[in-house]
Amino acid sequence: MVILRNVVIIAAIAAVVALVPGGGRGASVASQAVYLVFLATLGWFASISYRQHRVALYSLGDRKRTILYVAAGVATLTLTATHRLFATPAGSIAWLALIAASAYAVFAVIWSARRY
After folding, report:
1. What CA–CA distance (Å, rounded) separates 116 from 112?
2. Count: domains in the chain
3. Predicted structure pTM score
4. How far from each other are the two terminal CA atoms of the chain, in whole angstroms?
5. pLDDT per position as a tens digit, 6-40
6. Which is it for the CA torsion 88, 92, 98, 101, positive or negative?
7. Are residues 63 and 85 in the same domain?
8. At CA 39, angle to CA 93 and CA 99, rounded to 5?
9. DSSP states along the chain
10. For residue 116, what pLDDT is reported?
């Protein structure tokens, strides 16, 4: 019964989007709202994680902490530019190189911190 109810709800929403004038725009607004809530949740999670591990981050030292923050920034900017970078073959290679370099930098900092 629950499955049938869920199918009917999804079908009703699809009918509204397809039949009501401007329904596609409304669906786009709803999609953007869900996306913004997702990004806000990620930001909240990052701030909580930072507060919980602040001592460990400061114990890395300035050099390693800078590498970690720069790698996170490069990965963030690369992910936000994914659409533009994938528009060309050279951009796709650059995207892969930037993500790989960021991941390597993060893992290198983690490996060196655990070594001691």
Report:
1. 7
2. 2
3. 0.67
4. 58
5. 999 989 888 877 777 877 787 788 888 998 999 99
6. negative
7. yes
8. 20
9. -HHHHHHHHHHHHHHHHHHSTTHHHHHHHHHHHHHHHHHHHHHHHHHHHHHHTHHHHHTT-HHHHHHHHHHHHHHHHHHHTHHHHTTSHHHHHHHHHHHHHHHHHHHHHHHHHHH-
10. 66
